[in-house]
Amino acid sequence: MSASPWALEVEDLSITFRTDRGTLRAVESVSFRVAPGRTLAIVGESGCGKSVTSLAVMGLLAPNASVGGTVRLAGQEMDEAARRAARGRDMAMIFQEPMTSLNPAFTAGDQVAEAIRTHEGVSPRAAMERAIALFERVRIPEAARRAQQYPHQLSGGMRQRVMIAMALACRPKLLIADEPTTALDVTVQAQILALLDELKRETGTAVVLITHDLGVVRDHAEEVLVMYAGRMAEQAPAARLFDRPEHPYTIGLLGAAPRLDEKRGRLASIPGTVPDLYRPPPGCRFAPRCPFSVAACDAGQPEFRLMEEAHRAACIRAPLEAVLAA
Amino acid sequence: MSALIEAKGLVRHFPIRDALGRAKGAVRAVDGVSLYVFRGEVLAVVGESGCGKSTLGRLLLRLIEPDAGTLEFEGEDLRALAPSALRKRRRKMQLIFQDPFGSLDPRMTVEAAIAEPLKLHGLHRGRERERVAELLSRVGLRPELARRWPHEFSGGQRQRIAIARALASEPELIIGDEPVSALDVSVQAQVVNLLGGLIKELGLTFILISHDLGVVRQVADRVAVMYLGKIVEEGAAEALFRNPRHPYTRALLAAVPGQGQKPAMLEGDIPSPVAPPSGCRFHTRCPFAQPYCREVEPSLEGLTHRAACHFQDSLPPAPPLREAGPDARLRHLQSFFDRETTP
Domain count of chain B? Predict the structure, then answer.
């Protein structure tokens, strides 16, 4: 086995879709890496490319997508076919709506046992015993009884636990969780996120957490990548990003999220809407909505610059203090 | 001050039938709810899925009929109104939905959609077009957009159109059922600011139905928390957020992400509203439950800040909210975003 310190390395990923309307440049020049036992959150709003990025890593994109760049799993470069083959063995994925990922015609236990048998030559009976043990591990109450139930007989929270159990069945090096709690009630969301944290600590699995929720990022990620309109806007350790964001989009996004501890007259709202990715703006993609933009922002793509150790931002105006003082 | 709308003891059960059409139980969606809203006030009704908050909103507008209870609007018994009188009353009460894609007719231009309530109620006769233009600028859209079709707009713009349409009949009460839940955070902030401004400027009475406590904090004057068809706590927003009295409210607030990693406060799922637990409905998940809670159902106790918990006076103090706020630098930078804008 290679001794890479990274469970996952993605370099210069680009994704384009050929559609009836033309070529959609969904993701451009995205790079990130995750260490074992750590969580990288990819955060952004609809259309920023976060979900497409995770699907590309898993080799799950539709045939009209073309993917460029390099993906390495535990130091080993893998092309799309190799990544598809590694799914369910070295890497696993859980989605927002577990109902669509579970087969309604099979019991929850059968599906997890089947996943175990795909990778290990064990008897059906042994596989089911392991499935029930996994159900207990993800704290499904009355695990043996629940294993005999069909997906529609389980609550949303229970179904997500089944998905996590199935993901764990193969002891993956990498788990991608795409909005895993967005469809769940807030008290159930808290349980699922706490469970994912605990499993990550125990198994050393690297986690890529795709989310739109900055609160979830703050509590559950060590590293953060903020994406906007298919490009990287900012990347930093979570504590640093929340304390000292440099990219105007991150700053606006943090101000737009309502807070519990004070009623503010108005929220910081980012004017306008995200650009059309068939016809993206010529320069910085955030410039049309940015209160700090100047003519130079429209001239070309901003470089993803190092601001401080491990903290990068794609903004020619950063750090903004200097700009504002001038 | 008198209430604009007041409900007492509202009940609505939805029967569940077996394959032969025989009733085999009922979803007890709203199971004895009393509430009032003063003129010009923003009341938020919060709770998780299945708590009955959306059903309550529809009962208050008499879009569905209650099984029991009374309902008064401006002192008038809404339940006694004949259909024609009810239609007239409805002009004063509007509903905004979560889904801005489903709530607009795709075959109607924006102008036609907003002018429809004007024509229905005979308002601004002969100058409907000008009125539509006024309403569009009121919600931050350029009046030239009136001839466009719904599919040409983003989610946030469609929600602005839905708000303009709701305002067209000059209502006194608007009920928003998760009006910003389907929107991205940056766009959600635009619409929250817009609603807050309209409520203030037009003196609207607003009932916000939401699961999002952050949005509720920004908009509401008063909050009612629902659990399994009942209100479990009700009080001024400031008091309820700072000093939640019911264990469920505490758990809801503690579960909002962004407050640091900690073990989940509640175990298990919300029980089925078909067979709610005996006694206090929250006792199966409550970390403070006593045997007495299984037996006796608590009622809302208190004067202005009320909670339905037998032990509300002997609970340990509620843990403070632990969000890290923006520092001076970040506040300053964020202030550059806080401007009224026209998309």
Answer: 1
Task: List, for residues A159-197, the tens digit of each pLDDT value.
Answer: 999 999 999 888 899 999 999 998 888 888 988 999 999
Beta strands across the sheet bearing B42-46: B93-96, B173-177, B205-210, B42-46, B222-227, B230-236, B306-307
Residue B141 lies in a domain: yes
Tokens of B293: 């809670």
Q: Give A282's contacts (C-beta < 8 A, 6+ positions apart).
A: A298, A299, A300
Q: What is the CATH number of domain A8-90+172-325?
A: 3.40.50.300
pLDDT score of B56 more than 90 = yes
A319 at the B interface (CB within 8 A)? no
Angle between helices A124-137 and A108-119 (to 10 degrees): 110
Whole-number Å distance between alpha carbons of A164 and A186: 18
- Predicted TM-score (pTM) of this structure: 0.92
pLDDT for B1 equals 61
Boundaries of every domain in chain A: 8-90+172-325, 99-171
Alpha carbons A14 and A173: distance in angstroms, whole number: 23
Residue B281 lies in a domain: no
Are the beta carbons of B193 and A272 separated by less than 8 Å? no
| Concatenated DSSP letters of B42-82 | EEEEE--TTSSHHHHHHHHTTSS--SEEEEEETTEEGGG--
Q: pLDDT tens, B330-340?
A: 999 998 987 65
Whole-number pLDDT of residue B342 = 42
ipTM value? 0.89
Query: How many degrees, rounded to 5, is the angle at CA B59 between CA B53 and CA B64?
Result: 120
pLDDT digits (tens, 9 = 90+) for A55-93: 999 999 988 999 999 999 999 999 999 999 998 889 999
A264 with B259: Cβ contact below 8 A: no
Helix (H, G, I), strand (E, B) or coil at B307: strand
Residues spanned by the domain of B121: 94-170
Q: Which two tokens stand for residue A284?
A: 């910085």
Q: Which helix (H) or strand (E) holds B5?
A: strand B3-17
- Asked if the model's pLDDT at residue B185 lies above 60, the reply is yes
> Do the Cβ atoms of B335 and A220 come within 8 Å?
no
Residue in chain B lying closest to A267 (CA): B189
